[in-house]
């Protein structure tokens, strides 16, 4: 038996919304400690990894490990039935054929129930190697999201370069070339801070189309964490307060030179 109630159901709505453009069908892993999922996009360029701890739920029960295969597109459609102020309860029996989803709104006494059919997905669990990142940039989510959006109108690819003093996002396209440089800024307003932890400078190119898709998660976290290593994929990390973490992994683009 599995049952998990999230009093702020809007968080789950936002998570589903921020991964639905990247992955289609996913196996949701249920354990007594919490909920996790890992899935790659169809072109094998990006990977989504989500971990939600049992402590972040109002109520959580999982008697044993379970795997629930769901279509994210269908789950996103079901989530539209929920208001932002609804509590959401997920439940499934052992060897279940469906995931029961209940939306409850205490204010207007409304309860919505839906049984989402489960699917069988053959997917290997990828071991993500523990990496000591050479550069970690923590940046305001809205600021970073805006930079990626604006640069995408000028080029499909961005060169991300880190030094101990700044992080630079540079583009080169038919329109011309340019860059946005953000210096280490630990100002009084926490929301405006940019924090650089650089042991070794890194310079890599990434597809802005993917970065913009990842940034749909900006609404679940005030800060975006970029973890870079010259020999590894980029990790874009969104911490979900008191609940867990959503990470995206993106392979760098290999330049033609």
N-end to C-end Cα span: 55 Å
Oligomer: single chain
The rough form would be described as: globular
Tally of contiguous helical segments: 4
Record field, number of beta strands? 18
Amount of helix: 10-25%
- Sheet with most strands: strand arrangement: 6-2-3-4-18-17-16-10-14
> What pattern of helices and strands is seen along the backbone?
EHEEEEEHEEEEHEEEEEHEEE
Q: Provide the low-confidence segments as ranges.
A: none
Largest sheet: 9 strands, antiparallel
What is the alpha-carbon Rg in Å? 20 Å
The whole-number mean of residue pLDDT values reads 93
Secondary-structure-derived class: mainly beta
User: Beta-strand level of the residues, as a percent range?
Assistant: 35-45%
Short account of what is shown:
This protein is mainly beta and about 260 residues long. It has helices spanning about 10-20, 70-80, 140-150, 210-215, and strands at about 1-5, 25-30, 35-40, 45-55, 60, 65-70, 85-90, 100-105, 110-115, 135-140, 155-160, 165-170, 175-185, 195-200, 205, 225-230, 235-240, 245-250.
Fill in the keyword field for this structure:
globular; mainly beta; single chain; 18 strands; 257 residues; five-stranded antiparallel β-sheet
């Amino acid at each position: 038996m599995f049952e998990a109630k999230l009093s702020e159901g809007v968080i789950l709505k936002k998570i589903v919304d921020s991964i639905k453009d990247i992955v289609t069908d996913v196996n949701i892993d249920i354990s007594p400690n919490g909920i996790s999922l890992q899935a790659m996009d169809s072109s094998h360029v990006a990977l989504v990894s989500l971990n939600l701890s049992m402590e972040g739920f109002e109520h959580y029960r999982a008697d044993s490990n379970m795997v629930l295969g769901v279509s994210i597109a269908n789950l996103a459609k079901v989530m539209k039935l929920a208001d932002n102020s609804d509590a959401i309860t997920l439940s499934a029996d052992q060897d279940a054929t469906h995931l029961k989803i209940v939306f409850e709104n205490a204010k207007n006494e409304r309860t919505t129930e839906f049984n989402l059919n489960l699917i069988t997905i053959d997917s290997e669990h990828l071991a993500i190697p523990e990496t000591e990142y050479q550069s970690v940039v923590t940046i305001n989510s809205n600021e970073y999201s805006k930079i990626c959006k604006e640069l995408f109108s000028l080029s499909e690819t961005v060169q991300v370069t880190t030094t101990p003093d700044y992080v630079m996002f540079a583009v080169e396209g038919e329109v011309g070339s340019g860059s946005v440089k953000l210096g280490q800024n630990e100002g009084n307003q926490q929301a405006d801070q940019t924090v650089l932890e650089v042991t070794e400078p890194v310079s890599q190119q990434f597809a802005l189309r993917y970065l913009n898709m990842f940034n749909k998660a900006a609404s679940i976290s005030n800060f975006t964490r970029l973890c870079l290593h010259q020999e590894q994929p980029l990790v874009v990390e969104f911490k979900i307060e008191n609940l867990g973490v959503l990470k995206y992994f993106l392979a760098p683009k290999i330049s033609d030179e």
